[in-house]
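haha ok so turns out i had the wrong file open the whole time. this is the CORRECT one, sorry everyone. sequence first:
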Amino acid sequence: MGKETFLPEEVNEIMGLDNLIVELLPPIFGEYEVHEGINFLARPLLRTRADLGQMTLPDPEDPTFYATGEELIRRNQGRYAVVAKMRMGASPMLMSMGLEAFSYALADDPGLVDTVLGRYADWSIAIIRHLRDLGVDLVWTFDDMAYKTGPMFSPHIFRGTFMPHLQRVAQAIKGEGLPWIFHSDGNLMPILDDLLTLGFDGLHPLEPGPMDIEAVKRDYGERLCLIGNIDLHYTLTQGRPEEVEAEVKQRIETIGRGGGYMISSANSITSYCKLENVWAMIEAIRKYAPYH
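then structure:
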């Protein structure tokens, strides 16, 4: 950008992005530490039932909670699709409890997991009821559930512990008639068929390596818009600009065929991406688009 402060829409104008994000995220209950300029969750705070008193969520009926989003939408009315960036509850529960306390609670106090996840889901549902009045065009939920090797928990735990609450949030989103993108890093394949019953329209970020986007396109391309997959582990961060262009071209030719693909990085534009590679991706997308 060439300057320290700028508006989100200024980034859109330079990069050619199509949407603006309104963040409507719940708090994570934990203590953070900064290492090399990056803010890390160091200690989760909801480790036992005695910690539940700390779980105070913003009032979803408070108009000031939506003020920043309203201003962003007002400035850009009709220029971009407006995305509500939300969570269904799985990710904030896992981060606020920590994987160790979550795992022990599954055996010792499963009701604690259900309570924390349920409170987050209830809060998200309350927020969803305000999205149309706010002027949102689509919903994007961010709930990381997987490592590169597979989900953070077994399909059995996913179906019994997570799905009842995720289904409630999904029903609220679909009830508003808004398009919906689901995000999780890692390998979702062992639970993907279960996830698809939630009814989302797009899947992001299809992390290269853990997820075979060509196989997902073949098996699910008629049901889903696929989003992402330009590699952050090597191509955008360590590769050469010509490698970036080649990867963009290949994705458009193979995954873009027949439509149903939104090309982007395989998560976000991280601070450790090479600037010349980010520009190479932007220019390659412009060069090989439109695709259908």
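Residues 20 and 82 are 5 Å apart (CA to CA).
again sry for the mixup
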